[in-house]
User: Which sequence fits this backbone?
């Protein structure tokens, strides 16, 4: 979790919802310090679009900002409603800007629903791609602020969100050192979240690298096909521990040592198989393979079209194990293949994510829920998980006793799950 202050009331309602940013190159730009109760539109996701009125104000916004993909709220196994998205910014000023604060605003009421302070922005902001920048966006530099809002329930999520961004440019002329701008209003995507069945059957499954903060998947913004995409935004790497909490017993480098190795990966919904890759050898566990190609990254893998623009991806299966072919219709619970360690993988696991196209990388990741599971523990930290995976020592986790039953929720990161 980021160090984030939450829920401070602004007191001043926003007068207007939005303008389209018309900021263009301007030789005689006015002073940088501008404030407006307006924002720019998110343009990529149709449901994120905001209508524009002739009366909307215009303001110079030296730091450009937009939300590339409108967030889809979903229910987590922690009982919260999560809103996960990115604010993509570009500093058009000729000087580096330190991000001081980002306030997320309910556009209808003006209420501040979340605040990222300077310390939170050091963590939440990355210059493309996967490079932290200590909260500084350099001159002519772009980057992503990763946002994760928490609400008590779905009804509490605003219909649209705006952003008030403050920054300091210490090396700019005195009259241009402070930026305070309202940008990037986005309509929350209120589509129905896809409910999936369990991808595995059994106990001791660990939801690794899951949503929603600085995990590998959540911030896997990749430059693919001309766009920066996060297909794995809500991906989970399912691993498994044995009765003693161990991820593997014996040789770390032998796939057979791992509790999950060879488990059956199951169809999570009715659908049609649209892609099957097979024939990639197992990697040696313990180290990530080097110089792996984009074609081999997912290893032996299967993509299933669930309809309505939803596609599910299974990766890193055992060679020769995919039990389906392109065109096959599958039902929930059908065996797709066996859990393996092919592709870009450091240990046998099942990578699963939902996305909006059949392309495993050039897609936008979608949230989902799983219809029925129980949670019997929570890993104490990501470091504890990494240690157990590296050393084969028992995973340090906090038991949930008795286990909690979950219906139609997304298993949060590092939950110990029984299906
Ligand atoms: Zn993964």
Assistant:
């Amino acid at each position: 979790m980021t160090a984030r202050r939450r829920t401070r009331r602004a007191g001043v309602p926003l007068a207007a919802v939005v303008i389209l940013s018309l900021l263009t190159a301007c030789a005689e730009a006015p002073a940088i310090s501008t404030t407006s109760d307006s924002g720019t539109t998110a343009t990529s996701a149709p449901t994120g679009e905001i209508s524009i009125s002739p009366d909307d104000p215009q303001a110079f916004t030296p730091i450009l900002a937009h939300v590339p993909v409108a967030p889809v709220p979903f229910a987590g196994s922690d009982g919260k409603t999560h809103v996960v998205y990115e604010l993509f910014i570009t500093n058009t000023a000729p000087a580096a800007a330190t991000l001081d604060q980002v306030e997320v605003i309910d556009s209808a009421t003006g209420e501040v629903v979340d605040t990222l302070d300077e310390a939170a922005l050091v963590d939440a902001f990355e210059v493309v791609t996967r490079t932290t920048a200590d909260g500084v966006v350099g001159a002519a530099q772009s980057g992503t602020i990763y946002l994760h809002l928490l609400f008590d329930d779905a009804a509490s999520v605003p219909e649209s969100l705006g952003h008030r961004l403050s920054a300091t440019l210490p090396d700019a002329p005195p009259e241009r050192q402070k930026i305070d701008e309202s940008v990037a209003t986005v309509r929350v995507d209120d589509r129905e979240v896809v409910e999936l069945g369990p991808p595995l059957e059994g106990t001791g499954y660990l939801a690794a690298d899951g949503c929603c903060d600085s995990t590998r998947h959540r911030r896997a913004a990749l430059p693919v096909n001309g766009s920066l995409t996060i297909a794995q935004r809500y991906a989970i790497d399912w691993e498994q521990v044995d009765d003693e909490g161990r991820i593997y017993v014996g040789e770390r480098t032998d796939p057979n040592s791992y509790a999950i190795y060879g488990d059956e990966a199951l169809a999570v919904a009715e659908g049609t198989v649209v892609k099957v890759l097979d024939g990639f050898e197992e990697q040696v566990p313990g180290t990530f393979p080097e110089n792996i190609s984009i074609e081999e990254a997912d290893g032996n893998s299967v993509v299933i079209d669930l309809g309505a623009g939803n596609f599910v991806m299974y990766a890193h299966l055992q060679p020769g194990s995919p039990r389906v072919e392109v065109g096959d219709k599958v039902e929930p619970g059908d065996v797709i293949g066996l859990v393996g360690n092919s592709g870009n993988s450091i240990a046998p696991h099942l990578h699963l994510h939902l996305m909006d196209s059949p392309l495993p990388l050039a897609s936008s990741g979608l949230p989902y829920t799983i219809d029925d599971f129980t949670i019997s523990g929570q890993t104490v930290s990501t470091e504890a998980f990494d240690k157990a995976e590296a050393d084969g020592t028992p995973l340090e986790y906090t038991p949930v006793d008795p286990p909690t039953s979950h219906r139609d929720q997304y298993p949060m990161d590092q939950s110990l799950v029984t299906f």
User: Anything to note?
Assistant: The CA atoms of residues 117 and 234 lie 25 Å apart.
